[in-house]
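Repro:
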Amino acid sequence: MTESPLVTVVMPCFNAARTVRDAMAAARAQSYRPIEIIAVDDGSTDDTLALLRQAAGSDLQVIACAQNGGVAAARNRAIAAARGEFLAFLDADDTWAPDKLSRQMAIVAADARMVLIGCRAEVHYVDGTRAIVNRQRMPPQGAAAWLSMLHHSYLVPSMVIARTATARTIGGFDESLRSAEEDQDFFIRMALQGEVGFVDACLTAMHEQPASLSSRNRNREYETVLPMIERHCRLLGERLTPGQRRTILGARLTAIGRGVYPTLPRQGLALLAHAIAKGDAPLANLYYLLTASPWGRRLKARLRHSAGAETLART
């Protein structure tokens, strides 16, 4: 009987004392074996490192960083130390279904062309509500998954298993990216090396942390994510047609523009105007601007009031 390949669970941790025990328990509860867990404490100032050391066992290696180097650097420390053929990324504030690794490994380990595999995830909000992550977006799959990844973000690290050799070949995560865009960049570069698989099941739970890195940097995506996508489009050269490049950038401008508009209306307006100029959903974007802006809401209220007054006059 062929032994199953070793999976290294990569867990970067920074000030995660409230959540790291649940993440560790989820990793250890996996039905898949064999696994090893590498937890990297990225210079935490709370009790994270002490909790990790308390959880010590033959399956757990703890790496302590004296200073905070960012999540990309923390993951790279774990990738360098990994003995597993595959890497399963688990952020310290996320959890997994017990069969998550088993269901994904059954697919990715059987196909040498496949360099990574994802699944669906559900976010658990602090108010007790839940929602499927990126429900309306198409998950990236197949040999052309990198095109989908350029067009829109879907995967988050805790959804993904990746081949260790491929991750090392591409140089791991880009440590210069420190505003929560490093994972998208990593997945794009991985997908350019082979095929991407997907398990159409919700196997990851993301627990909302209002002060998380991604939450803090959401309003800066026009300075972080957009330049990263533009750089990939330039580097890919003739692998992208002018039409594909225009479609990708238009979709990103729309998504980022709508994301920042409520808090940075001038910046959001500029991004959405640029998206419209590239032909991305012009009518939908104009309608969004009409209904989302303060003056647009006032106009809608006035129109409703006028319509109501006219109806009343006719009765």
